[in-house]
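The records we work with from here on pair a chain with its fold. These numbers are not coordinates but entries in a learned vocabulary of local backbone shapes. To see the layout at work, look at the sequence and tokens printed below.
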Amino acid sequence: MAARSAPSCHLRLEWVYGYRGHQCRNNLYYTAAKEIVYFVAGVGVVYSPREHRQKFYRGHSDDIISLALHPERVLVATGQVGKEPYICIWDSYTVQTVSVLKDVHTHGVACLAFDLDGQRLVSVGLDSKNAVCVWDWKRGKMLSMAPGHTDRIFDISWDLYQPNKLVSCGVKHIKFWSLCGNALTPKRGVFGKTGDLQTILCLACARDELTYSGALNGDIYVWKGINLIRTIQGAHTAGIFSMNACEEGFATGGRDGCIRLWDLTFKPITVIDLREADQGYKGLSVRSVCWRGDHILVGTQDSEIFEIVVHERNKPFLIMQGHCEGELWALAIHPTKPLAVTGSDDRSVRIWSLVDHALIARCNMEEPIRCAAVNVDGIHLALGMKDGSFTVLRVRDMTEVVHIKDRKEAIHELKYSPDGAYLAVGCNDSSVDIYGVAQRYKKFGECVGSLSFITHLDWSSDSRYLQTNDGNGKRLFYRMPGGKEVANKEEIKGVHWASWTCVSGLEVNGIWPKYSDVNDINSVDGNYIGQVLVTADDYGIVKLFRYPCLRKGAKFKKYIGHSAHVTNVRWSHDYQWVISIGGADHSVFQWKFIPERKLKDALHIAPQESLADSNSDESDSDLSDVPELDSEIEQETQLTYRRQVYKEDLPQLKEQYKEKQKSGTSKRRERAPGNSIRLHFVHGYRGYDCRSNLFYTQTGEIVYHVAAVGVVYNRQQNTQRFYLGHDDDVLCLAVHPVRDLVATGQVGRDPSIHIWDTETTKPLSILKGYHQYGVCAVDFSADGRRLASAGLDDGHTVVLWDWKRGERLSITRGSKDKIFVVKMNPYVPDKLMTAGIKHIKFWRRAGGGLIGRKGYIGTLGKNDTMMSAVYGWTEEMAFSGTSTGDVCIWRDIFLVKTVKAHDGPVFSMHALEKGFVTGGKDGVVALWDDSFERCLKTYAIKRAALAPGSKGLLLEDNPSIRAISLGHGHILVGTKNGEILEVDKSGPITLLVQGHMEGEVWGLATHPYLPICATVSDDKTLRIWDLSPSHCMLAVRKLKKGGRCCCFSPDGKALAVGLNDGSFLMANADTLEDLVSFHHRKDIISDIRFSPGSGKYLAVASHDSFVDIYNVLSSKRVGICKGATSYITHVDWDIRGKLLQVNTGAKEQLFFEAPRGKKQTIPSGEAEKIGWASWTSVLGLCCEGIWPVIGEVMDVTASCLTSDKTVLATGDDLGFVKLFRYPAKGKFGKFKRYVAHSTHVTNVRWTYDDSMLVTLGGADMSLMVWTNEMEGYREKRPCDSEESDIDSEEDGGYDSDVTRENEISYTIRALSTNIRPMFGIKPHLQQKEPSTDERQGVVRGSRPPVSRAPPQPEKLQTNNVGKKKRPIEDLVLELVFGYRGRDCRNNVHYLNDGDDIIYHTASVGILHNVATGTQSFYQEHNDDILCLTVNQHPKFINIVATGQVIQQTCQT
């Protein structure tokens, strides 16, 4: 088992050394508070030069590579790299997230820019098309998106003097963009002869349509509109990386290390050469420049930030330094002073003051540095090099003591012994060399036991032993100084190690996550005094564990900030700080160690909000000390609701079987039956895996769900209304604050949420597109305008919606574990909480994202699974019910108290005006005061308390309560057993609705002359239901085993029931008492049937592939039907009681004589003529048409024929109930289809008078009663579903024009670009009729090239060769002949009171003046226009909308 909790101490980021200059530009600015904002690794930094203090924004999960400052200079936008990169807009004062923009870019966000008023943000992606996106960042909504360029874009900017104009530049291009509506349209800059076509690195916009851009060769290009008008040559001697516009003018910075200032007309003011400054150096390259007043900020390629005061421009001040490009691995701590030493592949070794947060010494070496160590007296500094050598320097002046090269491969680790006598040097060639310090580093010994590269070393406190780790994860021990390996492990048992930096060993077993590679953890350092261990890994995470960390799956606290692998981590000499270094991000992080975390200080050190938890108390292992999950919860957790075939897959599946359809539908098919059915009543309630899904409506009716149906139940009239818009299991339900609207979420490949009216049962909004597999929780905001939902995908996505608009407001990954509840904060609509397996999270909306913080439990509780949650009387107070029966009370994110409320999980919780009500697995309803300090009253759900007016019978006392709601003076309770109860506050309980309990329901039989039916289920109950107006369960009997089939005797007095263990029984139909039972089979009894007439014989079919025939009167088996190759599915008797029809799982239709069971071969034609007492078969010519096109992947599970032999009802695997005209001959018969069941319909039966159809849902456990509406009676109802399947051409095909138009495909035009290049030979130049192959040279899919003009003489064809090109003159469109009528409709309209006609042809919109015959044109489209409409609203006179092929729509 793991340690019971993560360590109680904490790390807080105090300082970051470095600046991201490499591969980034324009990422350094002054804020309004005169602070400096920039980024390094995955952290946004706000640095105050006056106070020498840093603030950090840690909302990113990977390297930040772009930054933009809002015009008001308070808000900052940063973009990151990653598989799913996002943009964060954050406040530079509070360093809290304001908005998150996500789900559009891939790979990374390369550039960002705010517009003039700061309302919109433009971003450029790193995807293959370098997508350009415009955002309404406050709402988190994308306004427009367009492909940017085929090559990399380096800079983008809004034109601050022209609205809706942007400019972007990059590899050999510059583009000028117009934003019109939601369309971004680019025009490429024309270089002409004014300048060379080359890469443009940066730009700035000015007045009068002027744009200045910095080129790779150091020139500045000046643009007017889209044309290059002049160049400023030699502005810099190398590429210009940065250009910044301000009130005074422009500042540029380049690879030549110079800063140039220009006035507003781009005339030079001055030059500042940083290479010539005191702290300058050869090769200095400027990546970012910011000019604000009399101060200039400069960021360099080598991670330095300079500040220059304009009037003292020759004295730049170096305010930040960091390592340059190349991996950073070496880290050592001074033994007596607050100093840290780092060394990098940039060949520099640097010493940092941890108190002053400054670089105090730097020395450049000849080789890249991979490790470092300081000896015990702090005099010598040893550096291990990449070339296999090591160098020793004096710390005080960085002068060399010795340089030794005994190895050829990199030195990865070295350490001085505690007594200062020896230096151990570990090499990548698997050896460790021991050198004597006093002997000028003479070699004393060699350790050669490892088979892989050395990764870590530790000396014992007495300097007698050395332990090593290598790349294979092996831990070895050596005697010092000789280096002999210790073979006997007993020898080192009592050894105390001076330091612990090894990643392998018993003491650090628990640091390893499951399924990790032996090299995933790069560094460890133990703090013996604080009993805590810090680790650094390949995923950019620094973790704190308790020390020693003995057992797998230890809990930890984790801290993010580094973007890639953290290569090394060390405690400072006095354990005040932790220093961590990033390999690829070249950064040095200094963390303050806070030994004890107390609740009163918690707000001070609260985990910073971030999209990834930066301070979580979690374990990488399931082996934790949380108690075992309650059986019900464990069962629910394992439900995935994933289907092999979803109803959404039907069109695609049908497409796959198209050829089959054509052959099968060649003959004309019977029309669908005239009868229809209407859902009348549903017995059942979804309680076994759902919670809090039962509410009172505004009018006092009850709303809940079962199967794929939303049910509104009127308890006074005992009637139901249905919402039938779903097509799969409904999993969650929430009611609007006004209680007149309901939101329901369902299962599906792309599951939907429906918001519908409880009075009309009509949908108001359907939301989809962001969840997968299912929606497991929904909740309305207090004002009813927003809706929150949680999904069943792997990341358990949480989405916030504006449901009326159907607009997604925010989205985030909720948790790696299942979410059970989502609750909106009633006081702040931007806040919500989610709770589920071992977590509770508190979320705040930030634009298009949600920022989450895990609930902090501390020492007051344990990390329990949360089953229910509500908000309290203030926005900060929240309450959650746990799987162990406690109620947790939260303030903000902190647990302040726990109260024992129930024995077993608290499944449901409801907030009242004054107090709360809870329900648990113990079957108790508890009323509480408003602070959960006192339980005011409890109600136990018992059979003895059942009121006389109940609609059924309570199966057991204290059923598990899954939903609870208050209203109209009553408490409404939903149980796991599928019951809905109403508890009067005085005590009596009324049962309103009930259904079968968990387990599939298959057995169904209707009474021969009464409106009742019997069902039997895997829940081990046999039930009798009244189908008349009382709609209740009349009787129930518990069985020893579950059952799959039942049947009434012809006189209705006996009821036969087949059980799952191979036995069956006959019971009295009135009392349900046993009459007789038999047990002759071992497998499931799948069907059971009395013979017609007197019911003399009973046919019992089993999964053993036999049908046994019993004489009812003598209670003896008289025959066995043998010969089936698979399990029996259906049995029917003929009207004489002499013949049995049998269906099997192998789709065999067999016939047997009764009572002996002799197999008969009957031709299909003859079988049709036989009169059958019942028809439940799914095979045979008479029902060939009931099998769908996709019959190979979907079974028809049940059928039943009306007594007048005209309508056949069927149920199938996808949950459809269908009606066919009987006989259904010919393949793919026409039908009427009804959706209410969510998964397979296991049985269907007509009542004795055909007035009702009863259907059973297997997994949804519901019994549905449908009213049969005869032909002619039927009125149109919205709940009637579609009435046809696949239509063949003969079923009413198309008119020839319609057919031709239907077959036109415009998608081929996707290959054409804006200027529509053509390939191949033009028609008038062709020598002969083109062959098929040649035609493919024309735009693919277009018509064959045709020319009606006579071929021109050959002389003319060759006459143009060698002629000088004539200049292209402007052509003006004057007249267009033609109108697009062949495949378009309703596309000609009058305008201006009939004076003009508007229509279209080709890619032109035409306004034709009737009187003069003149035309004017709209020519912004770039491909065929297909549709046109005119706005009829008086406010928008003469506004026309036209839509084109493939490219984006434009409006005028």
